[in-house]
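Protein modeling request. Please complete all fields; requests missing the sequence field cannot be processed.
Requester role: graduate student
Desired output: 3D structure, token encoding
Chains: 1
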Amino acid sequence: MVLLKQKGFTLIEMLMVLFIVQVMMFSIIVAIRPLVEYYKITLFLRQLQSDTFYVQQTAMNRESPIKINFAPKGTEYIVSDSRAVLYKRAYDSTIHITFGSGNSTIQYNKNGNISQAKTIFIRNQKFKYKVTFQIGRGRFYVDKM
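Delivered output (145 residues):
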């Protein structure tokens, strides 16, 4: 009896290919995890920077004080003026914010200056940053620790 040629793969060959694909996918996922943590905190810092510039400009335009208030044990900060809340901004629960001095409010006066110097420590599982708000011109700096 003559066997016809069958074009296909054996079960062993298929299992080996699936195993190799699985190992490659697992290694990619393990390599991406630190990048995700980095981008979470980087995105938060960029958003905080944009919101801080917005608060400063709005305080000068409206000629009234505007503040950023960080929730004590929450994952959001609230931007408000003396009359109402302008908006709330939520951030990832893996990001922790600690104030080095004073309360958890950053306030810009009608001239766009900060009313009190502040230091904020922002960290997640892998990265730590220090944000320094200087009194006077309302400038702030972000330093990686």
